[in-house]
């Protein structure tokens, strides 16, 4: 089973003012579900036509559309990593968007090789659900 330490992400989310509480609760629930390998719960938080685009980190680059395909891709992608440690350096929450500047490190399960990435994760909401996730990542060490 993968070891994921998302405690720094959860701590950052918990520091947000109440006016943005719903979006932050959704993101908190998603991060908690992923950390617990409970990917089935994600369907509650994505619109039917959700899109996921990941750029710049070869093991998980791609584009997926539709709730079932996005959840399947996210499940496959997270299974590729172990010992994930993610931190949100900066968060912007404005309009229908939440944007995180993140740094992450961990191991690639296939090779055991360590990786480090830095990037932007852009979440676009439709009401209380996410309708788009864009990740722009840059590997700062192998891969």
Write up what this structure looks like:
The chain has one domain: Nuclear Transport Factor 2, Chain: A, CATH 3.10.450. The protein contains three helices and seven strands. The chain is globular and about 40 Å long. The two termini are 22 Å apart.
Global structural class: alpha/beta
User: Beta-strand level of the residues, as a percent range?
Assistant: over 45%
Radius of gyration: 14 Å
Counted by DSSP, the helix tally is 3
How would you state the average pLDDT, rounded? 90
* Overall body shape: globular
Low-confidence stretches: none
How many structural domains in the coordinates? 1
CATH structural class: Alpha Beta
Annotated CATH architecture:
Roll
CATH topology: Nuclear Transport Factor 2, Chain: A
Biggest sheet record:
7 strands, mixed
Termini gap:
22 Å
Number of strands: 7
Q: Helix coverage percent of residues?
A: 10-25%
As laid out across the biggest beta sheet, the strand order is 1-4-5-6-7-2-3
| Topology pattern, helix = H, strand = E | EHHEEHEEEE
What features would you highlight for this structure?
143 residues; alpha/beta; Nuclear Transport Factor 2, Chain: A; seven-stranded mixed sheet; 3 helices; globular
Question: Concise description?
Answer:
The protein is α/β, with parallel strands linked by helices and 143 residues long. It has helices spanning 7-13, 21-35, 67-79; strands at residues 4-5, 46-55, 62-65, 81-94, 97-108, 114-126, 129-141.
